[in-house]
Specification:
The chain is built from 12 helices and 39 strands. The protein has about 675 residues and is an alpha+beta fold.
Length: about 675
């Protein structure tokens, strides 16, 4: 029995939270066995799809190399191996290869493996790398001598994402999480000293905030940032003064966000202070507080500034306008602005990992629903673009065989909701085609149209693939996000339903052939719309879904809960409690004929606890009037991201695709 605000909820599956209970593990393993049994007739199809996916991937491949400080650095993959190999060559790509780090060697003997980060020292003699071996997102930090290839004796356990080297290449800053897996401390480690002697540099005591550390692109400063969902605050030290006390830029004020980077004798500050959709400011390094901020790029109607990539003479502005992610270049000497023109009407473009602060050339990545990823070098002075590498697609892919469109659905309150779709040329618009509609809609994150070779398996079988750019995401600016959170969250769900209805109305599909899919917060979206309109969909895939929202948000001992109050609201407030209870998928499962459902979970998931999808599936089964399968697949050795190796990830994708194909078969 769960009680709050005079309301009592009966939760017969609450016991599934007992991770250390052998009966819970047995329950999850039994669910896996049941799912395997139900999916057994699709095994041959799964294998076919898996072979198709692998057959479209250049398994042995090399990333676009980057030249920095005399070294060409790149990663490569090898056919049959799961993980990337980090390499470099001196001066020329014809020089002998040096292997810096081989993920396949590090992963040997482990069911799960993920690199949290790989950071070279400023003198290019050392590499810091953090390894997660169970999906918990707590990493083991090690340091490698690049001259010998051997790891140093220094080992630090339990670290989180985020790190920075100092200028001496002996001092390293790292982040530690608390018991709720909230990054809340930054520590300083000096190579060759015991971890017990490391120095606590900063600690964030407000549970709504997370602490991070990073180095500026100029490598002259280390930035420490405390961030909640709606507020931020930064401090800095000079990189060559690692023992200095971090200096505050501007004290936090609720609802004011800012982040900083360094250029010349000033800091550049991207902020929503006085600008709902953000503007770019500058302040002297010697006087960085708000009183010294001067406007560099003002807020502009319909343009949401969302990131900067700083070079010595230019600033690349990432901005979102009419749902597209654009790149705009600011000449810091003249103040001139120009948008980087792109060859397609609908696309995604974002900066790459080029570390060259002094260069007038920026590296960015370009893709769309029909265009494979390309690494492009763009000269910000001449505006010349050079495609350094395009993602190869094996199997004779021809983009001319596929059509991408942008549609607009009208939501319940009259708001127009954009949708990106792609399909193989020649499908009939008579409602007979199968379709898969994806959605997310939270945290101001955007579901940008990107190419995925695995998607061709569905497109070549006549599917329409669509992305619903629902409110709660960041596709249409800050207002779009704010209209899909807190006490407006249900707009996310009704937007998605409007997109599904539009696909049906325009003849792209029909409810008997319409599948939907979402992950994490997108899984909450899937759960909510299934409760609202179970008749509209043939099947659904919900991966690590946040479906027990009310119970989780009432438990401030769980990872991330307090930090999430600024996204979902705090149900300790009766208004938020009632509103959240009205849409939380687990609390609103009802007696109805639900479509077929495949749900995934990760036993070690620190973001969405495994019991949320497990409880949801159990409750769905108890009230479902339909006869279609409701399945739960739990990864028993991983976390939020699912299987870690690329081949296992492709097998998971083949399983999901086979499930969808089987359920929407005519």
């Amino acid at each position: 029995m769960l009680a709050a605000h005079g309301d009592r909820r009966v939760d017969p599956y609450y016991w599934l939270r007992e991770k250390d209970n052998p009966e819970v593990i047995a329950y999850l393993e039994a669910e896996n066995s049941y799912a395997d049994a139900v999916l057994a007739p699709t095994l041959a199809l799964q294998e076919t799809i898996y072979r198709e996916i692998v057959g479209r991937v250049q398994e042995t491949d090399t990333s676009a190399p980057t030249l920095y400080e005399g070294w060409w650095t790149y990663t490569r993959t090898v056919e049959g191996l799961d993980y990337e190999i980090y390499c470099r060559r001196h001066r020329t790509m014809e020089a002998p290869e040096e292997v810096l780090l081989d993920g396949n060697e590090l992963a040997k003997g482990h069911e799960y493996f993920d690199l949290g980060y790989v950071e070279r020292s400023l003198d290019d003699k050392l590499l810091a790398y953090a390894v997660d071996l169970d999906g918990s997102e707590r990493h083991e930090l090690r340091f490698r001598d690049l001259a010998t290839g051997a790891d140093l004796d220094d080992v630090i356990r339990g670290v989180y994402y985020g790190s920075a080297w100092s200028a001496d290449s002996r001092t390293f800053f790292y982040v530690m999480p608390d018991v709720a897996v909230r990054p809340y401390q930054v520590w300083r480690h000096v190579l060759g000293t015991p971890a017990k002697d490391d120095v606590l540099v900063m600690q964030e005591d407000d549970e709504r905030f997370e602490l991070s550390v990073e180095q500026t692109k100029s490598e002259r400063y280390v930035i420490f940032t405390s961030t909640s969902q709606v507020t931020s605050e930064s401090r800095f030290i000079r990189s060559d003064q690692p023992e200095a006390e971090p200096e505050l830029v501007e004290a936090r004020r609720h609802g004011i966000e800012y982040n900083i980077d360094h250029q010349g004798d000033r800091f550049l500050i991207l902020t929503n202070d006085g600008a709902r959709n953000f503007r770019l400011m500058a302040a002297p390094v010697s006087s960085p507080g708000r009183a010294s901020w001067e406007e560099v790029v003002p807020e502009r109607a319909g343009v949401r500034l969302n990131f900067t990539d700083v070079h010595i003479d230019h600033v690349v502005l990432g901005e979102r306008s009419e749902g597209l992610q654009l790149l705009e270049v600011l000449d810091s000497n003249t103040g001139d602005l120009h948008v980087v023109t792109q060859p397609d009407p609908a696309y995604t473009a974002f900066p790459g990992s080029d570390p060259n602060y002094d260069s007038p050339v920026m590296r960015f990545y370009y893709t769309s629903l029909t265009v494979p990823f390309s690494a492009v070098d763009y000269d910000m002075r001449t505006r010349d673009r050079t495609v350094v590498k395009e993602q190869p697609v094996r199997g004779g892919y021809d983009r001319a065989n596929y059509v991408t469109e942008r549609l607009w659905a009208v939501a319940k309150d009259g708001v127009r909701v954009p949708m990106a779709i792609v399909y193989r040329r020649g499908i009939r618009r008579d409602g007979s085609s199968p379709a898969l509609l994806n959605g997310y809609g939270a945290y101001e994150l955007s579901s940008d149209p990107m190419f995925d070779p695995a998607r061709l398996t569905m497109l070549d079988r006549g599917f329409v693939f669509a992305i619903a750019h629902v409110r709660g995401g960041g596709e249409m600016g800050r207002e779009w996000y704010e209209d899909g959170k807190f006490l407006h969250k249900t707009n996310t769900f009704t937007d998605f339903i409007a997109c599904a209805e539009q696909l049906v109305e325009l003849g792209y599909t029909n409810p008997r052939r319409l599948a939907i899919r979402g992950r994490s917060a997108g899984g909450l979206l899937i759960g909510a719309v299934l409760n609202m309109r179970p008749d509209l969909f043939a099947c659904a895939v919900a991966q690590v879904p946040f479906v027990d929202a009310l119970t989780t948000m009432l438990d401030d001992k769980l990872p991330l809960t307090v930090n999430e109050f600024d996204e979902w609201g705090n149900p300790a407030d009766a208004d938020f409690y009632r509103y959240m209870k009205a849409y939380s998928p687990y609390d609103n499962v009802r007696a109805a004929a639900y479509p077929a459902l495949l749900v995934t979970a990760g036993l070690n998931d620190p973001r969405v606890s495994y019991w949320e999808p497990a409880k949801w599936v159990a409750k769905l089964r108890s009230l479902n009037h339909g006869d279609r399968a409701v399945l739960l697949k739990t990864e028993m050795g991983s976390g939020h991201s699912g299987p870690s190796g690329r081949y296992d990830s492709w097998r998971e994708e083949a399983l999901i695709t086979a499930f969808v194909l089987d359920q929407v078969a005519s």
